Amino acid sequence: MQQESVKPMDVAMDILGGNNTTLTDDNNGGGGGGGGGADDDNSWTTVTIILSIALFIISGLLEVGGGYMVWQGLRERRSPWILVPLGAVVLFAYGVVPTFQPGNVTFGRVYAVYGGFFILLSYVWSVVFDNFKLDKGDYIGASIALVGVCIAWFWPRNTTNNS
Q: Which segments within the chain are labelled E, that is strand?
């Protein structure tokens, strides 16, 4: 039996008292299926592809940005009483954004795939904000990581046997 995907906005509404269906619905396993993304049958559309990639990018910018604020506050001693708490709030937001990935997805696959985006966005952030100079190994490594996670994410799957 295939589990129905729990929608984050429904859960948020449950918590805020907006409706009483999602958290009490016996058909919601909460763990999600084994699919990569999109709908339960993994039929990717242009909209779900764009949404999924956008969510990975937003997650990455929040994580790298929040981590950078904490780094600047603690390691570089730049306004620690402002940057560290602000960084913590941004890092919390980073933890929420991946829950909006479309379809019947699992935590492990979302975060594994996100790792490739994190690598790329960490390099972009360091180039923009720290004038970091990438070398050939950085370009090749980030490219391999991004191609690898896109294969893992968009690979067609049968969610009933997770193959």
A: none
